[in-house]
Predict the structure of Mif2/CENP-C cupin domain-containing protein.
Amino acid sequence: MDAGESNSPPNQEPPQDGNGHSENTLKALRSGPSSMIELEQYEEYEDMSLPSSRIHAVLSTADLCAPPLKPLILQPKDKANMAEWFRSLWSTTIDKSPVITPDQFDWYFYQGRAIGFQVDLEYGSVCNGKILLGSYMKKPLWVDHSATTVFNLLTSSVSVTIDVSKSSFYPGQSFMVPCGHAYSIKNNTAQPAVLYFTRMLADSSD
């Protein structure tokens, strides 16, 4: 199976200064952007909190896709069948409503079975979306050292192992995996299992 490729935009070279700039203009350029100048006042105070622009997202769905999962490109026939199933699962009578398609998922495989991830929200301490487990797919054992995750099952039935405790869940039921605990999820049927998930950053002070 082929892994997908990502193309990065070419690096943009900054414009070169011409010879017609005034002395003040060249001096300003050498001083750097004004945002850098404004931050100089914070350098004298090590204990002072920096502006919120320094804050960045700490949770990423990419954590869920770590090895042994490997990237997968869906075959055209599989993609068409999945798209038809999606239309039935998320059907709507509202005009111009968004349509969920297989292309919106990032696909991986493990032991010959497929798993897909779609991100709905990824912001700071919260990350949520959907996971699709193919027929009899087992999401391999994994420990989330960053977040507690809540899952809600939409289709099929799954077996969930958290540490040494094993439970079964059915559509409409929810379960939680605390931060720092090993867990795996197995689809028990030939029907794809769709789960909604929400990851919440664990309190590092605990």
